[in-house]
Amino acid sequence: MATSAHPETRVLHVDDDPAFADLAADILERQRASLVVETATSAAEGLEVLADGTVDCVVSDYDMPGQNGIEFLETVREEYPDLPFILFTGKGSEEVAGEAISAGVTDYLQKDGGTDQYALLANRVVNAVGRARAERTRRRQLEAIEAAQEGIAILDADGHFTYVNETYAALYGYEPGELVGEHWELVYPDDEVGFAREEVVPTARDEGRWHGRTTGLRADGTTFPEDHVLSATEAGELVCTVRDVSGREEREQELTRYRRLTEAMGDPVYVLDADGYYTYVNDALVETFGYEREELLGEHASLIIPDPAFERGSDLIRELLADEDRQSVTWELENVTAEGEEVVVENHLALLPSADGEFRGTVGVVRDITEHRDRERDLRRYERMVNAMQEAACIYDEEGRFVVVNEYLADFYETTREALRGRKSDLIPAVREESDGDPYAELLAGEREQFRGRVTSEFLGRGTETLSYRLVPLTVEGETEGVVGVAREVTESRERERRLERQNERLEELASVVSHDLRNPLNVAQGRAKLARDGSDSVHLDAVVHALDRMEALVDDLLTLAREDGAVEGTEPVDLRRAVEGCWRTVDTARATLITDTGRVVRADSIRLQQLLENLFRNAVEHGGDGVTVRVGDLPDGFYVADDGPGVPLEARERVFQSGYSTREDGTGLGLAIVREVALAHGWTVTVTESADGGARFEVTGVEVA
To answer: How many CA atoms lie within 13 A of 96 on its CB side?
Structure first.
């Protein structure tokens, strides 16, 4: 079995005797587990095997019909010049051996009658394949060395060149053949030889590597600075890698000048080489992007610039290179900090001066415009928001002329925003005319923080309109530059308010009539009916008393609804437990049971909260029966009133709060409507659901806890 230490070796054995070929294959595979042998009985068949698969070595007989072993070898060499080929033949002579060597045979082995020859053949195959593989590896390495941009040479143990690539020889002004066999001292000036002999070479041999700056000596006697790496091999050789850095020194001098200038700048500055690698960054760039200087130098610009933006930058550089009259470009892009945050920057990019027409890289100055772009985005959002408003919004100058107007205001005047700019407002003169003093001048002088009100006046193209307005000073960096105005057309709203006021007045008059003129005769009728019933057994009198009691309940609930006067204007801390227990005592609860699970203090109008609780208790007793249990407990933002009665059907839960809705023939249908009105007046929400016992559970939320 082949292993990583002994990889599989595929062998083609060609012999015109099939029995011998098979025998030899079996013995070879037993001799070496890594050998896999395939047989052929002629040169033609062997060529087919070579064409169809991978073969590492050919073993061939000499005396075969058609093509003999030498002719087969010559054919193989034409197509596979480096393939190991071993001639394994029973015909041994100096003439055959000479022909085989001339044809390029790898090895020659004569058959004999024993089995030891197969062990020898197996060794010859393994060795030949090993040498071929090593040669291929060395050839690839040499090809890579020849293609390298660095100068590469190999020295033997005595310091003589055994190999140099074209780049190495050219650096020193020689041809490769002129250096092979020469000592390394040939390419060093006299004053550097001692340093190289005493410091460089011993360090490389002792530590395995030396890297530093040395001076190279060309064939014409000139010198140049070189970046020099010397590495020792296990065989005692030294591998030299050299690069001419004279251009780099010039660039370093330039960068020193850049550094002095750019370190004094507040904006981030960088220099990239022709391949996009950082060769310089200033302190401002380091601080902006959160990297250490050493982390950036030598790194590719894509470390900070995402791929799409980098591609865009590359396109811009190509455009600059194609346009001789254009040396710089400014563009916006997103960079990424060391923490992964995106920074929007404006990048001013310029080409470095070229050397002999060759592109050398770019220099860039970066400005962080994240806040600037965010402000612009916010400004556009504000503009869209103001133009979407369903009320007029504008900015006036000191003379009361429109400076900025929104779409609603332009529609009000049935014109465009552009046409309104610079035109005097109709609102400002009307405000001044109806006000004491000059509120507009007071706003401009900073004597007022705002001025608001309602005005009815003539507006150009609109006739008489009523507007509700609010004016505030427009202050920029401590200076008042005008007034911000917001106005709403309330002509129809004002009419509705007046109608509502008249309706409320009539409703109050009706409530007074019901409360006094109707309640008195109703009370008389109730009293007379009860007296008459006490002296008579007539069932008709029971019905009359019941009807009069229901009328009284209706009158009470109607008066409560009629006098619900809108939102609660003032609240006070109310002990919820005390309010619950007080309301329970005022309601006819018969044998019902109250459980109070609250110690909370809420902010409410205590009178209206009492109305809400009494109606919820009355509702629970009326629908749950005399033995119902009522529980009051806390919610995260309110409280609940639950019972163990029959509950409210799911389909009826939206209708129970409507005026007049009742499931009892003697119910008024107004109790839960009152509950809803009290909740709305406080800004609360009341809903009904199922209690833990299957009864009704009324939840009041949005309650402020004191």
So the answer is: 18
In this structure, the number of other CB atoms found within 10 A of the CB of residue 436 comes to 5
Structure tokens at 468: 């509700």
CA distance 297 to 378: 37
Q: Which residues pair with 402 in a beta bridge?
A: 396
Supply the DSSP string of 521-559, one letter for each residue.
HHHHHHHHHHHHHHT---HHHHHHHHHHHHHHHHHHHHH
Checking DSSP bridges between strand 57-60 and strand 35-40, what pairing results, if any?
A: unpaired
Write down which residue in 441, 458, 489 finishes a domain: 489
Selected residue with higher pLDDT from 146 and 260: 260
Taking the alpha carbons of 182, 184, 188, 191 in that order, is the dihedral positive or negative? negative
DSSP strand pairing (278-281 vs 572-575)? unpaired
- Residue 4 binned pLDDT confidence (cut-offs 50, 70, 90): very low
- What average pLDDT does the structure give for the chain? 80
| Angle, vertex CA 524, rays to CA 521 and CA 530, nearest 5 | 140
**What pLDDT does 701 receive?**
92
- Which one, of 180, 196, 176, lies nearest residue 188 by Cα? 196
Q: Is the pLDDT of residue 576 over 90?
A: yes
Amino acid type, 221: G
CATH of the domain at 273: 3.30.450.20
The secondary structure element, H or E, covering residue 700 is strand 696-701
Give the H/E segment covering residue 60: strand 57-60
Strand runs labelled E in 35-122: 35-40, 57-60, 85-89, 107-110
Quote the distance between the C-alpha of residue 193 and its chain's center: 59
The amino acid that residue 627 corresponds to is G
CATH number at 66 reads 3.40.50.2300
Residue 281 lies in a domain: yes
Model pLDDT for residues 110-130, shown as the tens digit of each residue = 877 667 788 888 888 888 888
Residue type, 313: G
- pTM comes to 0.32
Q: Give the DSSP letter of residue 650.
A: G
Contact 382, 404 (CB under 8 A): no
Tens of pLDDT, residue by residue over 621-664, are 888 877 899 999 999 999 999 999 888 888 878 777 776 556 55
Which pLDDT value is given to residue 264? 64
